[in-house]
UniProtKB/TrEMBL annotation:
Chain positions covered by the region annotation Disordered: 26-98
Superkingdom field: Bacteria
Listed name of the protein: DUF938 domain-containing protein
Taxonomic placement: Bacteria, Pseudomonadati, Pseudomonadota, Alphaproteobacteria, Hyphomicrobiales
SUPFAM superfamilies noted in UniProt: S-adenosyl-L-methionine-dependent methyltransferases
InterPro entries: DUF938, SAM-dependent_MTases_sf
Organism: Xanthobacter autotrophicus (strain ATCC BAA-1158 / Py2)
Cross-referenced Pfam families: DUF938 (PF06080)
Length: 298
């Protein structure tokens, strides 16, 4: 059971990582007595922040899309006294950081992505970015993906709830896999995965994007990175330690390592954009095709 309001929890802590959230808050989670709850729970499942937890915006932006508080006076009493059967639990999850970072990321994507075409999103998570970006870019077909079944259920539920025709059903895609279940794409977007996954996922991201993008096609990779000659913000130092405690294979990557890995796959680091809360947007462009085993072909 989630006793804390994740929004309050996220803003109160420096960084929160909860990859196991889906299991903790799964709609069919059993009660302590071992029975599946029949009462309608919180209208919209919420998840603690993945990635860097950005400070609450002074404009209140991060609260704009909040669902109603589950503890609103009256609501709980009503649920206790008049149980409501819940035939279709809502699979939508919510990550508070998305409401804070989606607009700055969208501003970058609007400049970078082609006006039309197929955009593959790697590690879509809750799916909130997918629906937000797809709504802003209606002529693009958005292809979300995630290896987590709970994430894919959330993505599909958000897409249905928003009624968006330009978002495809989410793919089960592990970036580290040798083969991806998708062919050529016009651009690739990846938000907050590189530091919250083993390095093999980044290698796979570069390999998969390099093989699928057209000449000059964009791979956009948002997240927190370490940079040579740039002091790491204390919040990112703490974040890195948190990540490594969770899984020693996780952690903030050096920008030069990510760029070198991309270059091996024909992707050149074209631009680095400073983003709020010590994050960066990395913009890679496909400059050459790499044939496995035979090297790069300009
Ligand atoms: C921090 S969440 C970010 C989700 C979303 N992009 C966002 O910013 O809210 C990290 C996501 O990476 C996904 N992920 C982890 N390892 C992955 C891999 N090897 N390939 C693809 N996605 C992966 C997780 O399932 C999770 O949805």
């Amino acid at each position: 059971m989630l006793a804390l309001d994740p929004y309050i929890a996220a803003d109160a802590r420096s960084h929160i990582i909860s990859q196991s959230f889906f299991k903790l808050a799964a709609p069919q989670a059993k009660s302590r007595a071992g029975r599946t709850p029949k009462m309608r729970p919180v209208p919209l499942r919420r998840m603690e922040a993945w990635g860097t937890v950005e400070p609450r915006s002074p404009t209140g932006q991060d609260g704009a899309s909040r669902p109603p508080a589950p503890s609103a006076p009256g609501a709980l009493t009503q649920r206790r006294t008049r149980p409501v059967p819940d035939p279709s639990p809502d699979a939508r999850r919510s990550a508070p950081a998305v409401a804070r970072n989606r607009e700055p990321i969208a501003a970058q994507l609007l400049q970078l992505l082609p006006a039309t075409g197929l955009v593959l999103e790697i590690a879509s998570g809750t799916g909130e970015h997918a629906v937000y970006f797809a709504r802003k870019m209606p002529h693009i077909t958005w292809q979300p993906s995630d290896p987590s079944p709970e994430a894919r259920a959330s993505i599909a539920a958000w897409t249905a709830a928003e009624g968006l025709a330009n978002v495809r059903a989410p793919l089960a895609l592990d970036a580290a896999a040798a083969d991806w279940p998708v062919g050529k794409v016009d651009a690739v977007v990846c938000v907050n995965m590189i530091h919250i996954s083993p390095w093999e996922a980044t290698e796979g991201l570069m390999r998969g994007a390099g093989a699928r993008l057209p000449p000059d096609g964009v791979l956009f990779a948002y997240g927190a990175y370490l940079q040579d000659g740039v002091p790491t913000a204390p919040s990112n130092v703490a974040f890195d330690a948190d990540l490594k405690r969770q899984d020693p294979r996780f952690g903030l990557r050096h920008l030069h390592d990510v760029a070198a890995c991309a270059a091996k796959n024909g992707l050149a680091l074209a631009r680095v954009v400073e983003m709020p809360s010590n994050n960066l947007s990395l913009v890679f462009r496909k400059v050459m095709t790499v044939s496995p085993g035979t090297g790069a072909v300009p």
